[in-house]
Design a protein that fits this description.
CATH topology of one domain: Serine Threonine Protein Phosphatase 5, Tetratricopeptide repeat
Oligomer: single chain
Shape: elongated
Helix content: 55-70%
Number of helices: 14
CATH class of one domain: Mainly Alpha
Distance between the termini: 64 Å
Radius of gyration: 30 Å
Number of strands: 4
Structural class: mainly alpha
Strand content: 5-15%
């Protein structure tokens, strides 16, 4: 069961905004204090906190409360800040971020999401935007880990759809942000881990297409091949998935030869050849069962020519011999019964 974290989460700095590339859920946390550069000493020194009773000082106090995990008092202080200074105050965008931070700290994810949507709609493009996206990503991860959206205080609705919406919006609306490609990968990984291999393959393919220089490219290429292969339903069904899997595995082996060799990609491609040979043999067997011998012979020969040294080719050759068609003949001269 997902538990709301009790540890403090990061904040926006007054003078700079720190955000790490969030390869995991434990993204780098920003600090409530600021540093100033002393050109004479050529060192960074911690600046004194702004005085209480000013907008800067009150926002600093709010951040300190959040840092200490005092989320409810922080939300009350934020309400007082807005009443005192108004929404026209230059620090108001950062107050919205702080409010979302406190709500996430209380695991009130949907309220935090609504707050961040308001921020992005009104202040998107400003310096704190990257922090807003980080928080949105944190909310999406919480929903994917099992958090429920509360309705009338009851935790009853799955948040997966909300998570997917957040991740899709990050990738679509902020394609140049550090989180865009990670959002696409996170959605693909979740679908893959939950057995939605067809949908996962589409998401990995999107990552490969839109971020060809991504650090996740090798992983996504391998996963897309695996997802396509897993989604192949069997020889009685369409082979598009297995053809796509073969193409992805071949590209993976071509680009990352040593890694592919260690992972046994060659053996996987051999298995795919066996499956495709069995698929074509099954078509020939169907035509033989329904007394369409010319079509059966055509497919058996196709297996022997296209899938040499496979079990399917051995079986096809045996059927051709039994049908008296082991020698090349014009299929138009073979009459269907």
């Amino acid at each position: 069961m997902l538990k709301c974290r009790s540890y403090p989460i990061g904040f926006v700095l007054l003078s700079m905004l720190l955000i790490a590339t969030p390869d995991t859920a434990n993204a780098q946390q920003s600090r409530t204090r600021t540093l100033t550069y002393d050109p004479d000493r050529k060192t960074w020194a911690e600046a004194p906190p702004p005085p209480p009773g000013t907008a800067e000082g009150d926002l600093h106090a709010v951040r300190a409360q959040i840092e200490e995990g005092k989320y409810r008092p922080a939300l009350s202080a934020i309400k007082e800040f807005v009443e005192r200074y108004g929404e026209s105050d230059p620090l108001y965008p950062q107050v919205k971020i702080a409010k979302a931070e406190a709500l996430v700290g209380q695991c009130e994810y949907y309220k935090a999401h609504e707050t961040l949507q308001e921020f992005l709609s009104e202040f998107g493009g400003m310096a704190p935007t990257s922090e807003a996206l980080r928080l949105e990503f944190t909310i999406a991860e919480a929903y994917l880990r099992g958090a429920k959206r509360k309705i009338l205080g009851l935790r009853v609705l799955s948040g997966e759809d909300i998570a997917f919406q957040i991740l899709d919006e990050i990738a679509a609306d902020y394609p140049d942000s550090r989180l865009a490609e990670l959002a696409t990968k996170t959605k693909a990984d979740h679908l893959f881990d939950n057995g939605e291999h067809t949908l996962a393959e589409l998401e990995y393919a999107r990552l490969l297409r839109e971020y060809p220089q991504s650090r996740y490219y090798p992983f996504a290429l391998r996963r897309s091949a695996e997802a396509a292969l897993t989604s192949f339903a069997g020889v009685d069904y369409d082979e598009a998935a297995i053809i796509e899997a073969a193409e992805r595995y071949r590209e993976y082996r071509l680009r990352y030869t040593h890694q592919a060799d260690r992972e046994g990609v060659g053996n996987i491609l051999d298995s795919i050849r066996e499956m495709r040979a069995e698929k074509d043999f099954a078509v020939g067997a169907y035509y033989e069962r329904t007394d369409h011998l010319s079509s059966a012979i055509f497919y058996y020969r196709l297996v022997c020519e296209d899938w040499l040294d496979t079990i399917g080719a051995t079986k096809a050759a045996a059927r051709l011999e039994l049908l008296g068609a082991s020698e090349p003949i014009n299929t138009n001269e073979v009459s269907d019964k």
